[in-house]
Design a protein that fits this description.
The chain has 367 residues and is an alpha+beta fold. It is 36% helix and 22% strand. Strand 16 and strand 17 form a beta hairpin. Helix 7 crosses helix 8 and helix 9 packs antiparallel against helix 10. Bound molecules: manganese (II) ion (2 copies).
């Protein structure tokens, strides 16, 4: 459990004159309480009071897991045969008295859940929104969070090694995905941070394509975009490698993307804005005439989720600070021809940044 984050949340409740925070997004519960769970349709909630102790509310089958996760306050369970909202209402009234105001995650809370809570507390107000607070807190990572992001990045490097080794004539995208995830899971990784992406040849020209039965052939560029969850923190990295000698056009595109990626990574430091950083990479690609084929933002924040703030995008004047963590992932996608993306996530340091992944970015040729 992260007591400092919990304290910050409690102070925010006091400042906002709100009695209780109801947190139900599993990733947010992990962020504050340190307990990782995917409850599916069952109710999982963290209740944090401005002045009294917080508690976790979980399905009965998870109570022991939650207690042994390092969460030091009460864990209350409910059986599938019980009405969770009756138990929640009783617990809250007993612990916190009559509650007049709740803070909720407005971009995350299903209407049905909201109505259940509102019915249990008629007259309470729900105007305080936790979403901007959590987004703001997630902007700056602590050294221990950065360590976990580095560990997660290490496993992405391992995944690249597995994937590159498995490339041969005729192997399909799905077979490469399967090999990577199989080897990582054998090594103790429980979860990928998103579905592993392997795209070969023309398929790589779609930035978010779906790996299928396409087979790798000599002369293809093969794009790997992948990451794992490690101790609750995500990695996300992309490498594009050549199977047999790339032609001049593939080399040209690759080297432009590489130049853009390296230029942006070298430009990261406290004081530059997100928009300026996006422009560093975009200007490189545009200067070669391929600007229209770099059709997404430069990057996104990373932490307990794979996409969070800061967004590294034109128009975002946010000034980067030490402790911010995000991806730098320029790409060029020319439909029916070629797709190249190179991505590292980094943490901003006092005078630059450290990348979480270290697999070589020079063009790798596999034979
Ligand atoms: Mn990314
Ligand atoms: Mn990615």
């Amino acid at each position: 459990m992260d007591t400092e984050k919990m304290k910050e949340l409690q102070n925010w409740l006091i400042d906002n004159q709100t009695a209780v925070a109801y947190i139900s997004d599993p990733q947010h519960i992990a962020y504050f309480a340190g307990y990782e769970s995917e409850p599916h349709e069952r109710v999982l909630a963290l209740f944090v009071s401005a002045e009294a102790e917080p508690f976790l509310f979980t399905p009965a089958l998870e109570v022991e897991d939650a207690k042994s996760s390092g969460f030091t306050f009460d864990v209350i369970g409910y059986l599938d045969s019980q009405d969770p909202w009756k138990i929640i209402a009783n617990e809250l009234k007993q612990r916190y008295g009559s509650i007049e105001s709740f803070a909720i995650e407005k971009n995350q809370l299903p209407v049905e859940r909201f109505e259940s809570l509102a019915q249990a507390f008629p007259g309470a107000i729900f105007s305080a929104n936790l979403t901007p607070l959590i987004q703001k807190m997630q902007l700056l990572k602590t050294p221990s969070e950065i360590n976990r992001l580095l560990e997660a990045g290490h496993w992405a490097d391992v995944a690249f090694e597995v994937g590159f080794k498995a490339i041969h004539e005729g192997v399909t995208e799905q077979e490469l995905v399967a090999e990577i995830e199989y080897q990582l899971k054998r090594n103790g990784i429980q979860q990928m941070s998103f579905d592993t992406l392997v795209l070969t040849g023309k398929n790589a020209a779609s930035p978010h394509g779906n790996p299928g039965k396409s087979a790798v052939a000599a002369g293809d560029l093969v794009l790997f975009d992948l990451g794992v969850v490690w101790n609750g923190y995500c990695s996300d990295a992309t490498r594009t490698v050549a199977f047999h000698e790339p032609n001049d056009f593939q080399k040209e595109i690759y080297n432009i993307v590489l130049e853009a990626q390296l230029a942006a990574q070298a430009a990261v430091r406290p004081g530059i804005s997100a928009a300026e950083l996006d422009a560093v990479a975009r200007n490189v690609i545009s200067s070669y005439g391929y600007g229209e084929y770099f059709n997404h933002r430069l990057g996104h924040g990373i932490g307990t989720t794979v996409h969070e703030y800061p967004s590294i995008v034109a128009g975002n004047d946010l000034i980067l600070e030490e402790g911010m963590c995000f991806s730098i992932e320029p790409g060029i996608y020319i439909p029916e021809k070629v797709g190249v993306r190179i991505e590292d996530c980094v943490a901003v340091t006092k005078d630059g940044c450290i990348p979480f992944t270290t697999t070589s970015k020079e063009i790798t040729i596999i034979r």
